[in-house]
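Your task:
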Amino acid sequence: MYNIVVATLDPIGLNEDQISIQNTALDFATKNVLPYSSEWDKKHFFPVETYREAAKLGFAALYATPDYGGCGLGRLEASTIFEALAYGCPSFSAYLTVHNMVTWIIDT
C-alpha cells in the first residue's frame, strides 16, 4: 500500500477564482487519479471513465469558447489545472494538455 501525501500548491499570484479552479483540479487528482495511477501504468490501462469524469468538470475543453461547450479559460488557469492534475499522474495531465490543444485548434 502506498502512503499518499495530500499536496497543496502555491497560490501566490492567483486570484480567488483561479485558486478555486486549482483546488478543484487538485481534489480531483488526489481522489480519482493518484490512488490508481501506478496500477494504470503497470497494467498499461487507459482510464477512459476517469477522463470522462474530468471532462464533466470542464477539463477537456479549457480553451474552447463557451459557444462550443468550452470553458473559455486562459493559459494561466489551464496551467494551474494541468499542474494539479500532474500531481496525480503526469501522463494523465499530459494527455489532457494535448486534448485541449486539439480542441482549441478545432474551436479557432
